[in-house]
Amino acid sequence: MIAYHILRGFGRLALRWFYRDVEVVGIERLPATGPVLLASNHPNALVDALVIGCTLRRPVTLTAKATLLDNPITRRVLRAAGVVPLRRASDDAHNGASGILDPSRNANAFTAVLDVLEQGGIVLVFPEGKSHSDPELAPLKTGLARMALMARDERRLTVPIVPVGLTFERKWEPRSRVLMYVGKPVSADAVAPNADAATGLTNRVNAGLREVTLNFPTLDDARRVLAVSTTLTGVLDVFRPLRAPDPPLAESVRVAQRINAIAPRLLELEPTVAVRVQRFLERFAEFEQAIQENAIAASDVQMDTGVGAGTWFVIRELLIGAVAGPLALWGRANHWLPVRIARWLALRRSHTPDEPAMNTIVAGLILVLIFYSAQTILVGWMFGWITTLAYAISLPISATWDFRYADRLHRAVARVRTYVRFRRDRRLHDHLLSELAWLRADVIELDTLLGTS
């Protein structure tokens, strides 16, 4: 457990450095005690396990494909973290296995999972069986359902299966955001003990996962809906402070799910309703084009462009910069080089969208620890142990603050540009405000109309 907690501490720090925010919705649905099986989608390689394991307060026993143990480095790390390896049928096929697959190939792994559940623990399983960048869930394997049914029938345990949906704003991009959506528990007790029990329970888990994830027919559909939902969420949102300048990712996901639900019905609308929808889409497209051409965030259209508001903004940010800037600069000086090298190495070694984040995190942790050690030894050689201790403590704190302050500074600069743009062109600001108000009112009316039609 000591190794697990150490690794989780490093993991939390790495996530805090790479992603700007990890939003959690529905955490109250996770039982506070007792055995639980978590069923998660798998869009971002080992980062998925990192997000869930580092976000939940309760310790999580992870499952992973057995092929990860082929690498001596990952084998040591995964064993230290208590990971249970699962051998997939595709692994045996890839390794040249022929004939009927051995159904007992995961017997030891299943036993290990049942032991954890019997002790009241949480086990995380990725029932898709693979990490991927497809626009919707892959067909689920029955292994998770068989674990739950074995726990019920062989160990007499009541184990809820809790769906967990992971949505990444831009999973490969540093300082983007993550949403972890905890769904309604699925009970294995409602499934009759027959030959189709595993399939039936898997179907119920699949339905639960689809409620907490985004699923699209094609990648083009995904890009189009997500772009619309991001802008539309900004239209419906309020003007936010710099410490949290964007609408919650959960709201964008909710809007995207609503668009997905409505889209199939658009071709069947009454003519009058269809005309209203078409008019909305045209004006929305014009609004979206205008803010993109002027590099303006949709929610920033609502900013106060008065002289007093602008003056206070500048004074406040200069004061914050005077206090926070030196600490951020200290963090930048100590971490810029290893972080840059890690990102360069990660991009060179990445071939799919679900590799850059994990490669950056792993390379970053290794390089930062190497730099930490070298820098601390040098400081210890030049100064006393008290200075060395203070220096070592300042490293992770200043780096974390540097990332946070850089986010704020980046958005502050963007708002200054928007403010100046609006001050120079008041007609543009007035036009965008008018369009935003019309779009907001119309989308609310259309949503109500489509919901009752």
Describe the structure.
A 7-stranded mixed sheet has the order 1-7-6-2-5-3-4, sandwiched between helices. 60% of the residues lie in helices and 8% in strands. The N and C termini lie far apart (55 Å). The model has no long low-confidence stretch (mean pLDDT 90). It has 3 domains: 2-95 and 102-211, Glycerol-3-phosphate (1)-acyltransferase, CATH 3.40.1130.10; 220-297, no CATH class; 307-427, no CATH class. Helix 11 (307-349) packs across helix 13. It has 14 helices and 7 strands. The protein is of the alpha/beta class.
Tell me, rounded to a whole number, the average pLDDT. Answer: 90
Q: Name the helicity range.
A: 55-70%
Our estimate of the beta-strand percent is: 5-15%
Secondary-structure content class: alpha/beta
Q: Please tell me how large the radius of gyration is.
A: 25 Å
Q: If helices are DSSP runs of H or I spanning 4 or more residues, what is the number of helices?
A: 14
Q: Quickly count the domains.
A: 3
Low-confidence stretches: none
CATH superfamily of the largest domain: Glycerol-3-phosphate (1)-acyltransferase
CATH-derived topology of the largest domain: Glycerol-3-phosphate (1)-acyltransferase
The shape is: flat
Largest sheet: 7 strands, mixed
Separation of the first and last Cα atoms: 55 Å
Q: H/E order of the elements?
A: HEEHEHEHHEHEEHHHHHHHH
CATH structural architecture of the largest domain: 3-Layer(aba) Sandwich
